[in-house]
Amino acid sequence: MTTPTFDREAYVLSVPGDEDAGIIHRARRLRRTPAIRRMVRETVLTADDFICPLFVVHGKSVRREIGAMPGQCHLSVDELVRDCEDVARLGIPAVILFGLPVSKDPVGLENFAPDGIVQRAIRAIKGAVRELTVITDVCLCEYTDHGHCGIVEGDQILNDPTLDILARVAVSHAEAGADIVAPSGMVDGMVEAIRDALDTSDFPDVAILSYAAKYASHFYGPFREAADSPPRFGDRLGCQMDPANAREALREMTQDVEEGADILMVKPALPYLDIVRAARDAFDLPIAAYNVSGEYAMIKAAAARGWLDERGCALESLVAIKRAGADMILTYWARDAARWLAEG
User: Fold this and answer.
1) pTM
2) Is 214 a catalytic site residue?
């Protein structure tokens, strides 16, 4: 057996008996230095790509860490404003708000109350950090005593009666100053109902970011602790998408486009990068992807045990989501990632 030799001077790998053999294309030439790698980088991640999720609660001076999501907190409105000021300083363009009510009921009345927790938060942010885009989650599960994303009758989640509630929530958020509303319950017809309600209430400029392809995922577990939103009975398999289905996601997105969605979202992100790419190829609307709580918590837990490098894994994950075709990424690493990228 002949042994290959390496001619350092000619920088060519040769095999005895085949002196004409040589490597012409050397990919490593363009990986040789940090500067060259930056020059040829195909996907560039910046703070502009991020939307920062925040959880707002009643009270004052509340900053309570969420056990299943290290580094994330329940924030009272005053503390929320401080975090939003930090978000803006880091160059992140937007936050998305999730509210926890003072009490729950079958309909979720605080969800569309003028003095509801999210409505108060929107006004406070807009009063302090006007340049920040405020997106609001529009759903019922955080506000209802049954924990489902719609009106319940017996053990059934009713689709059409839920549309009126979602429309009222969206309008109340717009009245408080929200820039974008984000219906997340996978309720059939939700985009059309919200678009009609916003337009007839004189809010034609408020955009809709639709959770267009939201899968029934096991990666939501930590979020349900954060938002106190697990269903009290049953599950959400009849509302959210089957993880096995891809073509169905395109049907869902097409319907939302036809109903007036301005941005389409895929949730979760990392297990569904193929769906992100399919959405990018099929539609010319902006595509969002939600780097969800379970994706965040897994890396956090492994990093805490010294098994993974958090910064490296987080940034690699975010680059993968953008490379798949996402124009914007909802991520709990938004602020950390912005700082890491600024550090170089």
Assistant:
1) 0.90
2) yes
